[in-house]
């Protein structure tokens, strides 16, 4: 157990920040917990921090202690609209690494304009939950290898990085795929969140891109959601991915907010 007693302002109780577990810190004043810090290890090996404290000074002291206890680099994710929280991490020396825009995506084909969209010649869309697992895992591995060979997995959101022991496709029923010549060449994953499912990943193999496959996959899943009575889905898009932003904005999606991934080296 590591304890750091930090000076408090005159008239206040001394603030003590204690590492109570390997991945948890508590800030105490007058024996009351006034703030908490936690660590999460993401599947790609990166360490993400979170701090829960109402008081700015408490936040700063927890951050100071955690940074002293942990090796860098360290990461955190914040809602960009939460200016107070963002400012707190910036005071601790964190800088913006990436921005993810959250989109609200209509499912009605009269709004998206996707009613007439079909897969290109020779390509068929296998509906959600009907993909053959061996072929699904093969295209997932191929997509990941292409990403690793180009921008690298550290440029991707944590949810799409390799899992322990090489497991990547956890829930095959959440995928629709594009099939061509006996193999899968693209995939889309939909998380079945109540009332507003989330489109978590759209990917097409490099040698099959720019043929309309991603658009056909999106048309399929949005049409399926609309048929199920769901009006809106959500998606997060890296602002550096101009093609994906154009794809979603071109079907009437609107930005609903943004998240920042911050890093401390």
Automatic annotation (TrEMBL):
Pfam families the record matches: Acetyltransf_1
Domain N-acetyltransferase: 123-265
Source domain of life: Bacteria
Coiled coil, from the record: none
Protein's name according to its UniProt entry: GNAT family N-acetyltransferase
Species, as recorded: Kitasatospora nipponensis
Matches recorded under Gene3D superfamilies: 3.40.630.30
């Amino acid at each position: 157990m590591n304890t750091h007693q930090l000076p408090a302002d005159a008239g206040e109780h001394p603030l003590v920040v204690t590492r109570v577990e390997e991945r948890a810190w508590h800030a105490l004043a007058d024996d009351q917990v006034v703030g908490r810090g936690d660590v999460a290890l993401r599947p790609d090996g990166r360490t993400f921090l979170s701090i829960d404290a109402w008081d700015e000074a408490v936040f700063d002291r927890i951050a100071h202690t955690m940074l002293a206890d942990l090796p860098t680099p360290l990461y955190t994710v914040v809602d960009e609209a939460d200016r107070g929280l963002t400012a707190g991490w910036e005071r601790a020396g964190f800088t913006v690494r990436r921005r993810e825009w959250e989109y609200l995506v209509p499912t009605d084909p009269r709004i998206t304009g996707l009613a007439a969209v079909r897969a290109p010649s020779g390509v068929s869309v296998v509906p959600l939950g009907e993909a053959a697992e061996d072929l699904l895992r093969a295209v997932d591995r191929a997509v990941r290898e292409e990403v690793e060979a180009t921008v690298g997995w550290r440029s991707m959101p944590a949810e799409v990085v390799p899992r322990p022991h090489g497991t990547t496709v956890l829930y095959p029923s959440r995928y629709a795929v594009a099939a061509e010549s006996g193999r899968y060449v693209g995939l889309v994953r939909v998380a079945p969140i109540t009332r507003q499912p989330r489109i978590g990943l759209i990917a097409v193999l490099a040698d099959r891109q720019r043929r309309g496959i991603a658009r056909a996959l999106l048309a399929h899943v949005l049409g399926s959601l609309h048929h199920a009575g769901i009006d809106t889905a959500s998606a997060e898009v890296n602002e550096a991915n101009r093609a994906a932003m154009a794809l979603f904005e071109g079907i009437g999606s609107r930005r609903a907010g943004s998240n920042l991934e911050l890093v401390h080296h």
